[in-house]
Fold this protein.
Amino acid sequence: MQKSRLDALFSLPTAAVVLAILCNILWGSAFPFIKLGYRLFVIDSADTPSILCFAGIRFMLGSLLVYVCGSLLERRPLPLPRGKVLGECCALGLWQTAAQYFFYYSAVAQLTGSFGSILNSTQSFMGVILAHFLYGAADRMTGRKALGCVLGFGGVLVATLGNHGSGSAWGTAAMLIASAVFAVAGPWNKSVTRKADSLSVCCLNLGVGGLALALIGFAMGGHLAPQSPAALPVLVYLAFVSGAGYVL
């Protein structure tokens, strides 16, 4: 499908909503698959270096998938930004991918799948609140949005109260920090994609952030040693989730 046809598709409100829901389904499936990957690669919850290696390789593979997909859509090698815009894309990758997923992957190792997913949903409400202050009249907080945020945060509170055995205090804090980082990254990402091709920004975001995570992990003594034939397919699926989710 040509890029112009994709633009036309995304201009339809119904199609945009359906594809946004599809992205959330993809990202939601990542949580249990990450925990499965830890088991298949025999990564202990306390082995932070190997956790960072696992995350870094995933996002670098995701970046490669975005590059290939973007090149096919553009019918030429994906154009990469230069100068200050390139630097901003790299900085975004260090924030949105490296910083966010450092806390996210640490939290996944410490929390149960359901509890972690519930906590991770707070990033949506944080994003709605932040957009009000960043975009003003263009994305102002309304009564319905406020009610949705109250109900959403209330649901998280009800689900987490007395949820003993679902994870550590550090895991809970790390997931909330990851959600806050993601909420801040959203408007920044939107700003950068006005200056450069969105697929190029996505490719650099995942690639630079993934490389930073992998380098830190391996420098700290981390390693990846698949102990099951299913380990690599799980890693490839997680890379697909990143690539497909960000491309959409």
User: Anything to note?
Assistant: DSSP finds ten helices and no strands in the chain. Residues 15-247 form one domain. The longest helix spans residues 13-40.
